[in-house]
Ninein-like (Manacus vitellinus), 172 residues
Amino acid sequence: QLLEAKASLSLAQTQHALQLQQAKAQMNNMVSKQQFEQLQTTLREEQCKTQQLQESLHQQAEQTCRQLVSIQAEHEHLLQAAVEQAEGLEHSLRSAEAVLAERAAQLRDAQTQLSRNKLLIEDLRGENRGFAVAMKAAELKQKSTEEKNQLLEEKASALKQLIGKITPASLS
């Protein structure tokens, strides 16, 4: 029984020493009232700073949101202006295409007329060559006729002279 009592005592002493050690560790982890109040003050200050930061972030978020709304409205306005400008350019392009198509049709008509005129000019040149040949023939004929007229005039003049000589002789 003595041995059991000694073992129990030894076990109780060990447990007591362990509990004492745990109590000391807990006491070391414990904070004094002054440190606790200081920590509470620091905590309140940090909470106050956190609240101020949250309010500041909230204000910045609202301001950013307003700026985004303003920028979005401006972008929509610019987009609308760009769309209107694009529509105007598209209308101008269609008008220019219509004018070009009309001019192309006019050029085709002019080219067709030019081709006809070239054919007419070739026909006229052929006729002119014919007229030139006929004119040359007429000029040769006229020259021949003038030469014959000249001869006839010379003969008529010679006959007049002869008649002029014969007439006074026959009257006498």
The CA atoms of residues 70 and 153 lie 115 Å apart. The chain has a mean pLDDT of 91. The longest helix spans residues 33-171. The chain has two helices and no strands.
